[in-house]
User: Fold these one by one.
Assistant:
Number 1:
Amino acid sequence: MSGRSLPNRRSYAAPGGRPASPAPGGRPDRPDRPTRPGLASSGHCALRARSARLAPLATMAALIVLVSWCGPAGASLSRASTGSAGKIEAVGAENQYADVISQVGGRYVSVQSVINNPNADPHSFEASTSVAEEVSRAQLVVQNGLGYDAFMGKIEASSPNAKRQVLVVQDLLKVPSSAFNPHLWYDPGTMPKVAQAVAVALAKLEPSRSAYFKANAKRFDDSLKPWLSAIARFKAHYRGIPVAVTEPVGDYLLQAMGVRVLTPKSLQLAVMNGTDPSPQDISTQDHLISSRQVRLVVYNAQVTNNLTGTFLANAKKAGVPVVAVYETMPTPGYDYQTWMVAEVRAIQKAVLNKVSTLRF
Amino acid sequence: MNWYHALLAPGLFANPSVQEAAVVGALVAAVCGPVGMFTVMRSQSFAGHALADIASTGGSGALLLGLSPLLGFVVFGVTASGTMEMVGTHRRQGRDLVTGIVLGASLGLSALFLYLTATSQTTTGAAVTILFGSIFAVTSSTVWFAVGVGGAALVLLGLLYRPLLVSSVNPELAAAQGIPVRLVGLAHMVALALAVALSALTIGAILSTALLIGPAAAALYLTRSPGRAMVMASGVSLVVTWIGVALAYDSYDWLPSHQGWPVSFFVVLLVLATYALARVAVWRRVGPRRRKAVPAGAGWRGER
């Protein structure tokens, strides 16, 4: 059970470019997209024929044609239907779920992740057609729910497949839709349930491997123990220490570690949703940090703006350590377990030695 | 608990974000008054809107490149203003068509830039910041940049006040007096672009002309003196911005979720109310029969 690197990972979120070529062990190369003859040139000529006055317009039109030409369209992508010989095809909407599928499915499963760019804000992710194709082919899909990856539901609805099993983590955990924090994977109780459900789903797809999947799920559970005991040790020593956050992403973990998040919920929501923050909340947060009422600032490295930059600068000025948290598993170099252990360790270092961790 | 806490939420005046917003609002109002008055006199409010849309392309592009949106607003706005004047907005025939199509294209480019920002960067809330403004999240370095931009616009208007006024009222007369009408028009367009950029900073690119045109139009309804109209327009801009900020601050307590409403909504609503009040005031003063003759702007708008 290596499970560290996913087969055939591609950065779907990379805009404007074609998807990277498949990694070793992936599927055969796609045929190049067919060219669209004459579209750009005919449009350009027709405009130019008019008059010089329209030159800026023609330039703009040409630019737009050019942009759409190399844009992430890819509707004409095609692909051999039997790529990964005999493997179960699965999709994890976020790469941390893909990682768990991969660890449980081992060599019998080929896993794709949809959201995996650590330099993008997943809340504003929009699926491309190639994602739709992955999902329509997949036999197992794991998605977060709570509106975090709402595009997955739309894609699934548009490509019905009676044999496809869809695991919604929100439903697995029975989290009400009114929950304010969608970042379920930071909750220590989440992934064991996901691994369990994935093992059951895979066993349904390939009953002969049932014992293998079950053993892998068990091994996954066991591998979480160092993380869980690190959380317990931290909680025993530092229960109730005050922290500030920029965004709710790490809140489930912080809650499990027994710390108190003093940042107003409304500010966390404003940053997460990208709306104009309230001045009351900004000054509350500024005060928490600059008067050192908090022991550390937990900073979402994937959802940033001017304001989170200001909070970071204030923390630096006040000597309050900062720890980065992520919306998706930072890669390469981490799997789910090592990522979570690294988060707890970074928080511990911040509280104990005032050391910041701004990048994993 | 002071008496005014019944009206204004506590802590309004002590809040650093509010103070900064008040300073930025005052600066924007000071620029928007004079520039807006000339824009209304010259019937160029559509050009202002065009500049705002094109500025949104610049702002979103700047954000994509990791620069200050204000820089993008200014660079794209000023470039576009020059181009629009060169291409010849004096030709009425077909002008609205070309402008309209270019506007659509530039908003389309903004859509692309905002999409790319959202999908390739950690930046959150790009669309809201560019299109609808985020006055409470303006950084102090941006404030100094804004002061520079506003100062440049005011100096430009100050230097050209007389020729600009004459050529706005009567272009033929201005030309006869030897005033370079086209050049003065170009300078006004540049000042307009700067004012649009500043206004976009407070209430967003899409709404920026509201702060520019509405107060000036209301002022020109009420007075015929250009000096008084400029001061009045600036005053109205200032008051609506400040009240907008105060209401946005107040709205934090309106709902239990403590998610305050956006400043731009309040500002635009107040601009509309002010304009309506100005029209009603004039209507009451001169009666419905003569109101067509009164709009001060029309009195000395240079018909071409």
Number 2:
Amino acid sequence: MAVTALATAEGKRPSRLRRLEDERWLALALLTPTAVLLGLFIAYPFFEGVMLSLSSTRVGEPGHFVGLKNFHKIWNDSIFHTTMWNTFWYTGVTTVFKLALGLWLALLLNRHFRGKAIIRAFILLPFIIPTVLSTFAWKWMFDPTFSVINWTLFQLGLITARINWLGDPDLAMTSIIVINVWRGVPFFAITLLAGLQTISPELHEAAAIDGARPWSRFWHVTWPLLMPVTLVVVLFSVIQTFADFQLVYVMTGGGPANATHLFATYAYQLGIGTGLLAEGAAISLAMFPFLFIIVVVQLLYIRRVETR
Amino acid sequence: MAEVSIRKLNKMFDVTHVVKDVDLEIRDKEFVVLVGPSGCGKTTTLRMVAGLEAITSGQILIDDSVVNEVPPMDRDIAMVFQNYALYPHMSVAGNMAFGLKMRKFAKPEIETRIKRAAAILGIENLLERKPRQLSGGQRQRVALGRAIVRDPKVFLFDEPLSNLDAKLRVQMRVELKKLHERLGTTAIYVTHDQVEAMTLGDRVVVMKDGWVQQVGEPLELYNTPANRFVAGFIGSPAMNFIEATLGESNGAVVAEAPGLRLSLPGPLAARARAKAGRAITLGIRPEDVHVATDSDPVDLCFDVIVEVVEQLGSEILLDTRVGPATVVASVEPTMRIRSNERLRMSLKPERLHLFDAETEAAI
Amino acid sequence: MIEGALWRRWVFYNIPLILFVFVLLFPFYWMIITTFRPDGELYRPWNAVNYMPFWTNDPTLEHILYLFEETNFMRWMFNTMFIALVSTVISLFCGVLAGYALARLNFPYAGGLGTAIFVTYLVPQTLLFIPLAEIIRNFQLGDTPWSLILTYPTFLIPFCTWLMMGYFKAIPKELEECARIDGASRWKAMVYIVIPVAVPGILSSGIIAFTLSWNEFIYALVFLSSPDQKTVPVGVTSELIRGDVFFWGPLMAGALLGSIPVAIVYSFFVEHYVSGLTGSVKG
């Protein structure tokens, strides 16, 4: 009898649609477009990238397999050492500042006051506006001759002579860090604010009645409950910052004297600028193990925090 | 109009066996209620009838054809969900029309059906509203309306009243009953509330841990529960249970517990005689216990200490202690009783239940 | 809760907040003022006596006119808009379907695929741009908008999928089950019930995807070469800087005008944007 019931039901509809009633077939159909695009433009390039980094290819010059030679070369390259150090420094310092300032801003916003919605909307602007475009505004502000920042510091009596912000390696790195923090704080603030809003005010009230001062209320109630959101936000930010390109490309192009390169800008300079495709691909790929470790460590930690 | 047969139905979720060998014949126009505590498999059974869960083994037949492999859309059933599941982006009329549109009904037909259903449920003035603009009771009506416009073979209800407040729940219960009497569609109704089960069901199926405990008309379950679980589950306040041993004295069968010695009435004694000397559980409903008067025979009386007096207005519930056991009694609201008072109680012997202490089956 | 005296509120809340807002918005003010400042004022050193940082007395449109007359700025705007729109639509299409499958359907390896999507969500563009440039060249897509329309989805789809998964999971399963009992197939239940209910999520993903594509730089920089194919960020960078000479006026005008479409889209859908942003970091 089961067979007849099936047969009549099947007679009513074309079998292609019938097949979509099966969850597995439907899932396959729904995932195919995504799989094709991601396969073609992520998995395949990744494979190609690995092959490229193991070859001697240059622009207009198909190379041959050279094994780990490129990696050996960049390992002994002092600019690459600076690049690595820069990337870690840049990522670490900006993340600490973005988290601290973002959390502070989120706490400031986590109250009821007039104009809150508008302020929140405006605060996100640095994050919305294309990085390259807003970075140009900063570059103009940091211009040694016409700098409004120098003017302000001079008027405040903090400096007596001009500061060549982008001409000195340390100052250039500092400038870049400032801009990255400027751009990232809104993202931290808004996402942490959302996290703060999920914390029931009753918890704070209970803690306050139990006699906890504001600081200990933050430390014992807010911070632990905010931890899961914080970790994910930090994960995103760390990866984006680690792989950053636009900001440095516009501000310094890696200079002065290759002192402010990040992985991405150095890879661009060698691979696209100089045409050493294989070496560029190798530098790009050198990011991968670090990113991989960051992701794995963070995900494990997030899981631990969430299951706690 | 349809019959539903459930034969040796089983459901496994990975390694958990949630529905076990369920057999049930539901007659045309019957209103059957599946009742049991949460996790007893009642909802899973209903979802298998709906086609929302795959069947592990066994068969479900609607009107004599096996529907095991038929997707829900082709089963011609309607279901009312606990959270109503109204489509939030459609108006009330749109919600009711959806099922008909999917079945390619003509527009005028859809309109007449919606009007008719809306009239039955008294929601004509809500047709243009969106679900979020409705109160809980109104949503409930719309969910019902959506089911009845389709005029399906079977109605399935998954705890449809449990999100309503107490007063509305009683009101909707009555309306559901009237609706079923009017439409006469076969219905399967799942609830954890035994009052709903008793008032709505033509027959009630009590389930526990995936097993069917007993199937019967409401009064049948109330009067002759098949086992201790059904006895305790049906009826409110719940039946009192006292652990006792059976003995014989002077040819009579007596149940003995600390502070209690009852001689069993004729028919019960006849059934129980074989178990003399064994441990049993005595069951008596609170409404069958009363304060003893001179006319009560001594061998049906026992002394208690009143612990709590609960005034309900229409009755008084006494929580009393007999040795280690607690006995709840429902007494006349006019009685004046204080806690810690000592009382002599008696009971209606013909209303006594006995359960095997080991198997928990009724004796 | 009670925040205490008025002065406390100013010292601990209002003044820090005003400072934050000032610092976060000042570069945009700088962009605007530079756009309308005549060259004579623009190139006046900061230590000059008549340096006037925050205002200009004779605003000019010369920089904006330069942009329209001497460069392909309108063309760049159009390119950026076209690429952002099409890649957003493609990504939404794929992301909605994939998100639905991963959030709602039971199938083998569903968990593994979900993780895979999350991992690709974390792959930065800068990891793959060199081999991708080769592939684009091999596919004969170099220097066409399609090189970007087809590659932007690589970072937009994982994002949309991830976000949509969250939205789909929040929709009660019963809605869909009810539709299927009402006579809809799985496909129809998805199209007529679940997707319409998820429209706010689709809007959020779409808006963020749009701003992400508008912001993208490295692929556009590497894959496009002729001036009339470029997007705004690349065009501004490459055509308004000649060697060491920066045309600051037009540059700022370009930055300002190039930001306006994103800002407009954002201003209309702030709430959707914010809810998408916060949804994207939910694990």
